[in-house]
Design goal:
Elements: H1 6-72, H2 77-88
Helix pairs in contact: 1-2
Length: about 90
């Protein structure tokens, strides 16, 4: 095996060192970005859960309004229009 000149070996070591630092930097960035992604995912899930809860609470109220409106549709037109105004103002 041939001996590398001192300058070539020094350059080789510098290149290895630079690549090790870059590799470590990329690993650190990967961990940081994955942690941020996990936090964002938790926030999105929390928001979705809140929205689902809010919508679930609205469903009974909307069902009640629909039933009320269906009942009012059976009334004469003049009574229906008066009742609609009061129902929609809620």
């Amino acid at each position: 095996m041939l001996e590398l000149p001192v300058e070539t070996e020094a350059e080789r070591q510098k290149i290895i060192s630079v690549f090790k630092r870059l590799h470590q930097f990329l690993e650190d960035q990967e961990h940081l970005l994955l942690a941020q992604l996990e936090m964002l995912d938790k926030e999105i899930r929390k928001s979705q859960d809140g929205n689902a809860t809010r919508v679930s609470k609205e469903i009974p109220h909307l069902s009640e309004l629909i039933s009320e409106m269906e009942g009012k549709c059976q009334q004469p037109a003049s009574k229906f229009l008066q009742d609609i105004r009061s129902t929609l103002s809620r």
